[in-house]
Design a protein that fits this description.
Order of helices and strands of chain A: EEEEEEEEE
Order of helices and strands of chain B: EEEEEEEEEEE
Largest sheet of chain A: 5 strands, mixed
Radius of gyration of chain B: 13 Å
Oligomer: heterodimer
Strand order of the largest sheet of chain A: 1-9-8-3-4
Distance between the termini of chain B: 36 Å
Shape of chain B: globular
Helix content of chain B: under 10%
Strand content of chain B: over 45%
Largest interface: A-B, 22 and 28 residues
Number of strands of chain B: 11
Helix content of chain A: under 10%
Largest sheet of chain B: 7 strands, mixed
Amino acid sequence: LAKTTQPISMDSYEGQEVNITCSHNNIATNDYITWYQQFPSQGPRFIIQGYKTKVTNEVASLFIPADRKSSTLSLPRVSLSDTAVYYCLVGDDYKLSFGAGTTVTVRA
Amino acid sequence: NAGVTQTPKFQVLKTGQSMTLQCAQDMNHNSMYWYRQDPGMGLRLIYYSASEGTTDKGEVPNGYNVSRLNKREFSLRLESAAPSQTSVYFCASSQVDRGTEAFFGQGTRLTVV
């Protein structure tokens, strides 16, 4: 199972772009890269998933370089409601545990 | 669509008591999972069921048992609760052949005193 490393915390201000980079040096050929968001007292919620290059949806963008050893989640123009923990997962299923994630705090 | 439903939402147990946490999904997913989350920590996998009739241990299975009752339901049982099992428990389901998006329940907050 590919181990992931991401920053423990990040601070930002409303309206800024937040970029969270996740390292996964041992990613396997079949592995997807998936990001989740978790608010206090709630279960994690799927944000975005990718395999290679760039993926964009209405919430975020995911950038994956050609070697796939890292990935960057980009949250455009964050608001206070984007304050949450963000998890990077690498694998082809959920037979794995989530790491501690990155706590993103958005300030006014 | 209800998604993933967990019961109960809150529970207080005395040390040594037993209980079963219930989970049901209505998305016809093959795979179901139980996680625990301790304060300030990520989610750790307890058990999972890749398909109806199969279950496997995750990272922290000790002290727990599971039953995949049918495709919809996956229960987690604590036979003899211990204070170390105080945690928030999340159930999730996914359909692996459609990618790896998992859907989570709202959690069960369990306190063992």
